[in-house]
Amino acid sequence: MKLIWKISLILVAAVSVSAQTGDSARLDSIINKVIAVRDAEIAKINDLKMDAVSYEKREDGDGNVKETKKYVKTVFLKKGEDGKYIYGEEYTGYFVDGVRQDDKQLPKVAEERADRKKKRGGKDIAFDIVSILRPETRKYYNVTYDGLSPKPIDDFPCYVIRAVADTVHTAADILDTLVNITYYIDTASYHVVRAEFAPASLISRFMFKMSELDMSLDYEPYDETIWVSRRFHIKGRAKAMYFMGIYFEGEEVYSNPVVNGGK
Q: Relative to the CA of 133, which of 9, 42, 199, 223 has its CA 20 to 30 Å away?
């Protein structure tokens, strides 16, 4: 009886190791294809121009909307000599609670929004969304393959890959730059359909102490080989000095993309 029990344990362990090995191989295969697709895309895109409308709302602690804002702008990406994209934007309209504001305020509005993004540690569309999966960064993460998404994302069947920062073995100064991220990868093209992410470490930034910050980026096909950003969403909670909590939410919707238009 003891012999049968030991054999059973050995068989269970062998099946478990085999399953883990299979998942690991599947994970590496998917990641390699995602990186190859992204690198081919980067090689083709020298610049990108899109129209964008950005919405923000601020709530009190009871969930009541205190203020809404809308920004109309054009956003640009231009590839630098190092192969990374430089982000730019030009504001053309600004609305508070549905009322258009004087265009003379636009330079100040642009400066204030850029400053807030920096304080919150926010990302923009210049961020290489698959950089976390690249070997030089992946070493700071525990990356897992979570199978297929229970339902399609924007009509695309997707693989799900999750990357969680290794908080035990990663130095604090590096950890502060990392994000925990969930990828939804199109099973046919290996493009990222959606990425949901949040800072791995919420640190105090200047006058703000963040207690929550969740972001997501959605993508859509531009042509057969290039996908572009469709929507960026951010939601967070912060405390400014000794004042009550600040709840904020915003999204940026992109349209009319032009790739390699020379801007």
A: 223
| Digit-coded pLDDT (tens) for 157-208 | 999 999 999 988 888 888 888 889 999 999 999 999 999 998 887 654 444 5
Q: Beta-carbon neighbour count of residue 17 at 10 Å?
A: 10
CA atoms of 109 and 105, how far apart (whole Å): 6
Give the Cα separation of 59 and 55 in Å (integer): 14
Q: Is the pTM of this model over 0.90?
A: no
Contact partners, residue 156, CB within 8 Å, separation at least 6: 184, 186, 187, 188, 193
CB 147, CB 160: distance < 8 Å: yes
Q: Which two tokens stand for residue 17?
A: 């190791």
- Classify 83 in phi/psi space as left (phi over 0), alpha (psi -120 to 50) or beta: left
Q: Who contacts 215 (Cβ-Cβ below 8 Å, separation ≥6)? A: 122, 123, 196, 197, 198, 232, 233, 234, 235
The H helix count followed by the E strand count for the chain is 4, 12
d(CA 159, CA 161): 7
**Helices assigned H by DSSP within the chain:** 2-44, 106-120, 135-138, 172-175
Q: CA–CA distance from 139 to each of 30, 178, 231, 239 (Å)?
A: 17, 12, 29, 33
DSSP output for 209-260: EEEEEEEEEEEEESSSS-EEEEEEEEEEEEEETTSPEEEEEEEEEEEEEEES
Identify the CA nearest to 72 among candidates 86, 48, 54, 46. 54
